[in-house]
Structures are given as structure tokens and as C-alpha cells.
């Protein structure tokens, strides 16, 4: 009697995922994890989501009074408070997504050791939670810009979306990379804290790109622009601050070219992060 072996072709090794594609096939579970993380953030809070709008508004007032008026930075950069808040918004998104993505596996160790699910889901959920937390800050920045006469073009709105895409891919890739390493070597988390601390200064958030161009050689300035955060920050400036600037400031040289490079670099980091993640995930349950 002939034995039917047709089922053998569909058998898969237990505990092995198809990577990022598996995450999107479990969208409902991903949504549950994101919802849980957001609810934890505001658990026990009376005002809840209101704090997400109050914080950037208070930041704006502090920047406007302390930096713009007392330090007179408005004289060198018009609407300096909006300039700095726009840059901080996109860098904060990166820092939160990257930091939480690095800790996401160790923070969910109990769940990972009990059941199987696509482990990439945790750094991706961390990025989505960071994005949700960043949206109120973006709304506040845009509302303030509208008050001062913000009238963007379609290209400037597209610049904001492109910046968010670059940072989302970059933070997810780095979160998977360092998150996987952090399972075995917890020093990775401390290294990430140093990167996050330097991120705000490694891109034109607190200063303008002209200050870097005037102090460093051209080749070093080119490397500075290849940092994906640099064009991402400048895209946010281009979308929110540039329409307000009465002096007609110039965007980062070759902004769109370097934005394309930033997108490519972020994609490569995402692919590399997924590769390292899949190579190490077989030890997650054991090391955790």
C-alpha cells in the first residue's frame, strides 16, 4: 500500500518564524501588545492622554522664554522654539523606539519562555508605541506653527512623512539588532543609552547645519549628512519651520539626495537587524 507523504511538504520546524512577514500575519496580536503598552503608560493617571499634549506645550514655553528670550537665540534663529521642538520631536521618536526596542525582549522574558510567537513583534510593537506617543507632540508642534502662520506645501507635508518613515525603519532595525544582543550581553543596553544621549547632538536639533559645515572638512560634513537622523531632522525642519522662517534659510545641501541615502541606510540596517535577530533567536528562551 502506498504511503501518502503529501503532508511532509508543509511541515515546518517548531519555533521558527518567517521573520517580519510573520509579524504582519499576526496583526491582531501585534495590536493587542501595542494597546497593552499604551494602557500601561497611562495606568493610574487621572488626565491620561492629556499629558501627551501638555508636555510638548510646556517644552515650547520653556524653549521660547529660556532660550529664545533670555539667551536671545531668537535673534539668530527666527522662531527658535519651533525649530528646536520640531527637531526634538523626531529625535524623541527615535530614542524611545530604539531604547524600548532594545529592552523589549528582556522585558517580555516571561512571555517568550512560555509560548511561541514571532519575537520580532516586540521591537516592532515598541516602535509603534513610540509612534503613537509621538503623534500628540507632532499635533502640538503643528498647532503652534499654524498659530504663527504655517502654510505648508504638499512637498513639505511629504517631508514630514518621509522623516517618520526613515526613523521608524532605522529604530526598528537597531532595536532588533541590539535587542537580540541584549538578551545575552546586557551591556548592549548601556551602549544604547550612550547612543541615545548623543543622538540629539549628532544631528541639527540644538543648532543649525551651517555651524557644522563651517567648522569641519567637506568629507566629514558629508559623513555628518549620511547619518540618517540628520536628514530626518532637517526634513522635519523643512516641513514645519521653513514655511515660517522670514529670512529664507537654506535647507541642508542636497537634502533630498541625502534623504534617499538615509532611507537606503535605514532599510539596510533593518535587513541586517533582522538577519542578526534570526541568527540569535534560537537562544532567546535559554538565555532569558
Automatic annotation (TrEMBL):
It is found in: Cell inner membrane; Cell membrane. InterPro entries: ABC2_TM, ABC2_TM_bact-type, ABC_2_transport. It is a multi-pass membrane protein. It comes from the Bacteria. The chain crosses the membrane at residues 46-73, 79-98, 122-148, 154-178, 190-209, 255-277. The keyword Transmembrane helix applies. This is Transport permease protein. Belongs to the ABC-2 integral membrane protein family. Keywords: Antibiotic resistance, Cell inner membrane, Cell membrane, Membrane, Transmembrane, Transmembrane helix, Transport. PANTHER family: INNER MEMBRANE TRANSPORT PERMEASE, TRANSPORT PERMEASE PROTEIN. Residues 47-280 form the ABC transmembrane type-2 domain. PROSITE patterns: ABC_TM2. It comes from Microbacterium yannicii.
